[in-house]
Amino acid sequence: MTQRYETVIGLEVHAQLTTKTKIFCGCSTEFGQTPNSQTCPVCLALPGALPVLNQKAVELAIRTGLAINCQIAPRSIFARKNYFYPDLPKGYQISQFELPVCGHGWLDIDLENGERKRIGITRAHMEEDAGKLVHGDTPETSGNSLVDLNRACTPLLEIVSEPDMRSANEAIAYLKKLHQIVVYLDVCDGNLEEGSFRCDANISVRPYGQEELGTRAELKNINSFRFIKQAIEYEVERQIDLIEGGGKVVQETRLFDSNTGMTRSMRGKEDAHDYRYFPDPDLVPLVISPEWIEEVRATLPELPEAKRTRFVEELGLTAYDAEVLAADRELADYFDACVALAKDAKSCANWIMGDILRKLKETDSTIADTPVSPALLTGLLARIADNTISGKMAKTVFEKMWQNGQTADQIIDKEGLKQVTDTGAIESLVDEVIAANPNQVAEYLGGKDKLIGFFVGKVMQASQGKANPGMVNQLLKKKLQGGS
Amino acid sequence: MRITRAEVEHVGRLARLALSDEELDSLTGEMDAILDYVEQLKTLDTEGIVPTAHAVPMENAFRADEVKPGFTPEQALSNAPDAAESAFRVRRVIE
């Protein structure tokens, strides 16, 4: 049944910009403070207070716009969006309507089948956030809602996509890509739980082949990628069932309940869309010169996609390795720093993706907290490369390094881990082992080739792990054959 | 008529205005007159003129991203009709 219908999804993302202060006043935007401790006449909407635009917010909006291939508007204006709600002190939200700061753009997403798909971006506009409503649950406040206006007037960039996505998976791919970009750009901290990156999804279905879009429902503020996927999938099924049952989808806002995995109607929007936008007379037009745009463009970091390509084409990594390393900007910077020191990109990648990521996971920390700097890691790699220690021994050195932050050389010296590569020393150990195990020697010579592992183990044990395993192997084979 | 009484009522409701029947009648007449005037303005040739977004010929009034001291929660709530737990207290909003 599902196959007869095509899903159409458009997404609106609200990214909270990483300014220190609000968009129209000097109050702090810090999260998690005492309610109403970050307010002033402007964000409380006291009579006579006037908003003044935060220049940094504009810069971050341009930065984002450029990264998602948007046209930056030479002239844009702010508008009032009028509605009443207890979290909106002015009775209107300052937003942008007719002339947003960022015009048409696009993002390419990678689909599961390996193909790329271009998702159009309709626009991105600046606006202020509303306050936070908490439903009271103490005896004093039950039956009430509590309004905290610390968040009111926090700068948001609302990024609106075209209805170009055709499945929950495409929607998630788009969101993850956009999320990665805004975090890379440092324009948004990307924290979904704290509401720094919020998503509304417009969803409709239509029979295949039909040009006209079906009636859409809007899913509001879902705060994890997993829930967004669940919510979209549920909503698509609900709409198809409704149509198949002879009913009609009504245009409405729906909320996703993560406990039940279902969406439910939030409120009829019969009046809600009548926002009566008009230019805000308190704010003068925003004019962005080509020079300003170029100035911002010059500060853009290398974006994940460019990094992945460089890692594959210039450094010879596999697509998978490049993907993992480029996913996080700090991790990618760490990798780049290692490659600059060690040249051998492949072994840097292996160590970072193996041991470093494992330790970070174990200690629940991020690459910024790693006690093993690129210099320390590449120092270790150098000692493996020049045969001072074996790859296996390197793991021990790495563990110590993680604990005490010492260099590989210091640890190798202190612990006496230097690999024995002196042929004579290894040879005598090999001789001892052969002499001590005549039965195994006989079996080996009788054709039990696998016993070579037994001998290597014995020699390594006798050397306390310090003998070069390759040399041990070679010498053993030679001696055992020679002795026959 | 350029505006109906029902439209005036609707706009009034959006603005949370409790309008009496008499007020609705008089406002419908007044708003109709305003729209008449706007209709006259529409006969002017405005080809190539950028819509005015602001009466003052000025652009880019910015402030730097610097934290300025604001209110304490007590000050912020001092005009609140009702408050609890450092917040404005309102009737429960159903979502």
Q: How would you portray this structure in words?
A:
The complex is a heterodimer of chains A (484) and B (95). Chain A folds into three domains: 2-293, no CATH class; 302-415, no CATH class; 423-483, Arc Repressor Mutant, subunit A. The model of chain A has no long low-confidence stretch (mean pLDDT 91). By secondary structure, chain A is α+β, with helices and mostly antiparallel strands. The longest helix of chain A has 20 residues, at 225-244. Helix content of chain A is 39%, strand content 19%. The model of chain B has no long low-confidence stretch (mean pLDDT 92). Chain B is flat. Chain B contains three helices and three strands; from the N terminus they run ααβαββ. In chain B, 37% of the residues lie in helices and 9% in strands. Chain B has a two-stranded antiparallel ribbon. Chain B starts with a helix and ends with a strand. Classes of the chains: A alpha+beta (484), B alpha+beta (95). Chains A and B meet through β2, α1, β8, β9 and β16 of A and α1, β1 and β3 of B.
Helix-strand blueprint:
The complex is a heterodimer of chains A (484) and B (95).
Chain A: E1 5-16, E2 53-54, H1 55-67, E3 75-76, E4 79-82, E5 92-95, E6 105-110, E7 116-128, E8 132-135, E9 144-148, E10 155-161, H2 168-185, E11 197-207, E12 217-222, H3 225-244, E13 252-257, E14 262-267, E15 278-279, E16 286-287, H4 290-297, H5 304-313, H6 319-326, H7 329-342, H8 345-362, H9 374-385, H10 391-404, H11 408-415, H12 423-436, H13 438-445, H14 452-462, H15 469-483
Parallel strand pairs in A: 12-13
Antiparallel strand pairs in A: 1-10, 1-11, 3-16, 4-5, 4-15, 6-7, 7-10, 8-9, 11-12, 13-14
Chain B: H1 5-14, H2 21-41, E1 62-63, H3 73-76, E2 83-84, E3 87-91
Antiparallel strand pairs in B: 2-3
